[in-house]
C-alpha cells in the first residue's frame, strides 16, 4: 500500500512539473483602450478611500444656525479630513439634533441640539460605541437629512 502511495505521488508531481505558469501584471493600459479576454486592467490612481453610500439621504434646505455655520467654517479652515466631515440632521428623542462625524480613527462623533449644546457622542472612541450617553441613537434617530459635507 505504501509503495502505491509513493508511486501515485511521483506520478502527480511529474505531471504537474511539465506545466508552465506565467503571471504578469500590466502597468499600462492595452493599446485598444479596452480590456478583453484574460488581460488585467491597468492600475488606477483614483481615490477609493471615501466610502460611497448606497442610500442617499435627502438634503436639508432649512437655514443653518449660526453656531453650525461657525463649525463649518472651522472645518474648512483646516486641511481636508479623511474621512471627510459630514453633518446630518435627525429627529431624536422628540427634538431636532445635528450629528457631526468624527474627524478620524478613535475620535468621537458629536450630537448637538439646535442651540449648539453638546448632547452626546453616539459613536467613536476606543470601543466605537461612543460615550454611552445616547447608546440608542442609531436605533432611535429618524428623518435623516444631509446638512453639509466637506466638498473638497
UniProtKB/TrEMBL annotation:
| Signal peptide (from-to) | 1-17
From the UniProt entry, list the residue stretches annotated as the region Disordered. 22-60
Outline the extent of the DUF6970 domain. 75-150
Q: Name one Pfam family in it.
A: DUF6970
- Where does the record place a coiled coil? none
Q: Does the keyword Signal apply?
A: yes
Protein keywords: Signal
Q: Kindly provide the name given to this protein in its UniProt entry.
A: DUF6970 domain-containing protein
Amino acid at each position: 500500500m505504501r509503495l502505491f502511495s509513493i508511486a501515485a505521488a511521483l506520478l502527480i508531481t511529474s505531471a504537474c512539473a511539465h506545466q508552465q505558469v506565467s503571471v504578469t501584471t500590466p502597468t499600462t493600459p492595452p493599446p485598444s483602450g479596452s480590456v478583453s479576454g484574460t488581460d488585467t486592467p491597468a492600475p488606477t490612481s483614483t481615490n477609493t478611500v471615501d466610502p460611497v453610500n448606497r442610500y442617499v439621504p435627502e438634503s436639508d434646505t432649512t437655514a443653518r444656525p449660526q453656531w453650525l455655520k461657525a463649525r463649518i467654517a472651522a472645518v474648512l479652515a483646516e486641511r481636508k479630513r479623511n474621512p471627510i466631515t459630514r453633518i446630518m440632521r435627525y429627529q431624536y428623542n422628540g427634538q431636532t439634533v445635528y450629528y457631526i462625524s468624527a474627524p478620524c480613527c478613535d475620535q468621537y462623533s458629536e450630537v448637538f441640539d439646535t442651540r449648539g449644546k453638546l448632547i452626546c457622542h453616539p459613536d467613536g472612541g476606543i470601543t466605537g460605541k461612543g460615550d454611552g450617553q445616547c447608546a440608542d441613537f442609531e436605533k432611535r434617530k429618524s428623518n435623516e437629512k444631509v446638512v453639509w459635507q466637506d466638498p473638497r
